[in-house]
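ugh ok fine here u go
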Amino acid sequence: MTSTAGALTGSEPIRVLVVDDQELVRTGFCVILDAAEGITVVAEAANGAQAVQAAAEHKPDVILMDVRMPEMDGLEATRQITGGDREAGPRVVMLTTFDFDDYVYDALRAGASGFLLKDAPRHDLIAAVRVAAQGNGLLAPSVTMRLIDAFARRPAQTLPAPSRLAALTAREHDILLRLARGLTNAEIAADLVVSEATVKSHVGNLLAKLGLRDRVQAVILAYETGIVRPGEPDAPD
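structure:
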């Protein structure tokens, strides 16, 4: 059976591939996830090369991918698995022991849907899999702050022109600004005095127009294009 995160229904378990070169870590993740309701581990891998093969064979919905591994690291494995397709295929959540690994930004650009610290609590690990399976992006709060800080240190002239955003409506542009500041759909709805369903629809439209896979990539694009700068006040109504 070929399954993608976007095609999941409530009756189907979330199929997970766990990739980590440390056997004890890998086993621990597998035990935790197999015990969680609605989640099943379909395979595990000890390096990126094995991950690429296992992803092709088992068609997981979500892959927990270690960043630093022998033979092939998690970044290259993510590139090969996602193939640049922002809509289909498994959602990749990167795992690392560092608050901000050097690979994280590149991994997100390669198609990863999120980033989670290996020492995250059990319930955060389970929640991350479920969030990713629903097609949403996720970043640990500490990682979000470091990612923003990394953009703050970039020279302004290295930022690409925001012409890519020209297709957005004024409302979609407003919502992108608020996504970049970390607001949830409920918070955006309250801020703009619209329904959450309306916000969700606008988010889906702007992702489609920009060719983005999820909210994480929308946040990255907002900072890359310079429409949002670290330390700026909230966008006006």
